[in-house]
Amino acid sequence: MNETRASRPFDAQGFLRTLTPRPGVYRMLDANGEVLYVGKARNLKRRLASYFRKSGLPIKTVALMGQMADIEVTVTHTESEALILEHTLIKAHQPRYNVLLRDDKSYPYIYISTDQDYPRITVHRGAKRGKGRYFGPYPNASAVRESLHLLQKVFRVRQCEDSFFANRTRPCLQYQIKRCTAPCVGYISPGDYAEDVDLTIRFLEGKNTELIDELAQRMEAAAEALEYEQAARYRDQIASLRRVQERQYVSGERGDLDIVAAVQQGGLVCVQVFYIRAGRNLGNKVFFPRAPDQAGLDEVLHAFLVQYYLEHEVPQTILLNAEPEDRELIETVLAERAGHRVELRHRVRGERARWLAMAERNAEHALQARLASRSGMQQRMEDLQQLLNLEEPPERIECFDISHTRGEATVASCVVFNAEGPLKSDYRRFNIEGIEPGDDYAAMAQALQRRYLRLQEGEGKLPDILLIDGGKGQVGMAVKVLEELQVQGVLIVGVAKGPERRPGHETLIVPGRGELHPPADSRAFHLIQQVRDEAHRFAITGHRHRRGKARTSSPLEGIPGVGPKRRQQLLRQFGGLREVERAGVEDLARVKGISRELARQIYAAFHGGED
């Protein structure tokens, strides 16, 4: 078959005589039978005849026809059927001359399991099989985590796993930091908890104004009944919701819409999508479709809208920065799939025009960053996505390491990397106290607790990946700490040293997945090594500084009542710190300004007891 295609010229006139004017889909194949291009047509005969004009063809089409050896046709009943079949075939064959959107992942939702006495709120991906309510989709895991964090602060509905919830005998840390009402141990009744769940659902439905009015009435009623603690809680909820309105709500919007802007530069295409649900801005997502040279924005938007929205939830309105090919047809097909009217609009005014301009600026910025780092950090993040089988490239990585000298002056480091490299403003060090010297597990646990407890309280941003410089024991400790803190959506990866501690032979430990042994030349592995080495460097620097400070400081500095003048007097009278250490209580008490009681404290600071 391949030899036949390669050997005989394509009979265009004979082929065109066999065509029908009905709608359908056509596939252009090369001499080896590979699909070069998939297209759809309202009139197959007229559309395919246009490819065989003697002049006036676009450059892209000339290149395509130079490689085309055969054409296959599928006739459909309607143009809408042809559009859907075109999408299916493009997804299956990934032809080089089509605009291709590589986006097979499922998008995250917020899920509330309303069939339980104490429902749980959590992130959800995949089929919606569970009983309950789903809200979204959100553009990425970071947007979901931010919303869950906000909901936990305002409404205190539990987010823990059911297995964790069922086995509690005392409240967890979430109760202590006022992020949960401890239903696991019966600190709140099912009825009162159900009210909190109802408030959460109404917030996610976008009924904020109505919700604030009701909370205000409850606050006044609680104050009149002298229930001041409950009234204060309603007051704090109202204040938090008003701040959310200022930050998240889109002026003049109350329904569901997406804002889609496409830009082209340097042979790349970028599409930026902002998601508005129930009037709330859920965030944005950037796409880089593969487009052939000379593809216009109308063709790019056509391909994106069909390939993306035939696979994902369709809002009522989609704002566009250019008009796509076959706009009315796309509206019809998407409406049939969604079960409601769908409107594609590209000429808008006022607030919508400003939002569309902002989406276009975001697309331009993302494209410029991509062009600047095509072979750099962005590519390494994408390789890391593949290595760890993630839904999307990570946006933020944090890595922890422990450093000490035989247990002395233990310091934990936390370094942060994003798509642009090290984010040094977010680096943190933790001086570890109150543990057995040399207990690296306890040191790691303390550092993680301090770091992520602060994040749960609203200071900072959770990472997508948490790297731990250590083996299974350290990883198990990290899993335990994050479970206790109810931190969700963070992938823990341990970096265990290889045989004889040789660099380049490390093993990656991923909870629930086992061990990974990436090749030494993997760019993703190089990124992990870079982040790990940076955490190691930062920890050692902090440890050396702390150890040096401890070794050069005087024991006299920690004694209440011994200030700079008295320290200077003691050192002058005895001729140095070593002689002060050798002195007895009576000798110390003879120094001017040193009482007998203070002399005992000075002696105890050096010897742990009295002379």
Strand and helix layout:
Elements: H1 2-7, H2 12-17, E1 24-29, E2 35-41, H3 44-49, H4 59-67, E3 70-75, H5 79-93, E4 109-112, E5 121-124, E6 133-135, H6 141-155, H7 162-166, H8 173-176, H9 190-204, H10 208-224, H11 228-248, E7 257-265, E8 268-277, E9 280-287, H12 297-309, E10 317-320, H13 327-338, E11 343-345, H14 350-372, H15 377-387, E12 396-405, E13 408-418, E14 421-422, E15 428-431, H16 440-456, E16 465-468, H17 472-484, E17 491-496, E18 507-510, E19 514-516, H18 523-552, H19 564-574, H20 577-582, H21 585-589, H22 596-607
Parallel strand pairs: 7-10, 10-11, 12-16, 16-17
Antiparallel strand pairs: 1-2, 1-3, 4-5, 4-6, 7-8, 8-9, 12-13, 13-14, 13-15, 17-18, 18-19
